[in-house]
Amino acid sequence: MITIRVPATSANLGPGFDTLGIALQLYATFNVSESTEFSIQGCPVAYANENNLFHKAYLHRVHELKLKPKTLSISIQSDVPVARGLGSSAIFIIAGMICAHLLHEIPFEMSDIALAASLYEGHPDNVCPALYGGLCASLIDDKKIITEHYPVHQDLHFYFIVPDFELLTSLTRLALPEKIIMKDVVHNLSRLPLLLRAIEKGDQAQIDVCIQDTLHHPYRYPLIYQSESVLAILESFNIKGTYISGAGPTIGFLHQGPIDILPIQEKLKHLRHEFKLIELQLDTSGTRYSKL
Prior knowledge:
single chain, alpha+beta, Ribosomal Protein S5, domain 2, Alpha-Beta Plaits, 2 domains
C-alpha cells in the first residue's frame, strides 16, 4: 500500500502570476495499491474513472520512465475543493507521479517530481509549494526548476472565501489578454519583491499595497459571481489586501493577527451564492509519502 499526502496551495498572491505560491494545512491523501481491476473511490462520480487526473499523471510519468503501467486501486480522502483555486490539479498530478515512482520502485528526488509535474501542468506556482511546503517563488528554465523559499511572519494569518461554485483554470486562461501594457508589467514587477519583504515583516499596510495586481485580476474578477459584493463586504471591515487565489473563484487575504470571522460570514450569507470564510494555517512540510 502506498500513501501520499499533498497540501493545498494558493498561487499568485496578486503580482506573483504563475510564479508565487503558498502551501496550506488542507490536505488530500491517496492510498494506492496494485490490483487486478481498476477502481477509484472517494471522488465525485464524474472523476471516478481512468480519466481521473491522478491516474492520467501516473500514466504520463510511467510513459516518461518507459515502464509498463500497472492496474491501480485508488482511494482518495480530500478536503481540498476541486476547481476553486486551491491547487487541486497540482495535488493530483504530484500524487500520480510520485505513485509511479513508488509503485515501480524507481528512485527519485523531489526536484524530479517538481520538474515533471510543472511541465505537465504548465507552470510551477502550485507544484513547488505543494511539494516543499511554505512560501515559494519558482520558475522553469531550460527544463530545470528553480525555486526559492521566503519567510512568513509568524503573526500573519491566511484567510480564504471559498464559494459553492467551480471555475475552471482553462476558462480563466482564455480571459487573459494576448497583449499586455508596459505600465501593467511595471506595476506588478515593482510590487512583487516588496510584497515578499512585507510578508516577511508582517507589514499589513505594505501587503495591502503590494498584493495588488494588474495582469490577471481585472480579467478574472468578472468571472467570479458576486465578487464585487464580496470585496465590498471585506472593505467594510477594512480588509483591503485581497487577491484571487490561483485562477479563482476563491478570494484570499493576509491579515496581521486574527480576525473575527463570524460578522463577515454573517454578511456573506446574504449573497446569492454561498461563500464560506475559512482560515488556513501555513503548511511547512509539503508532500509526504510512505510505502508499506
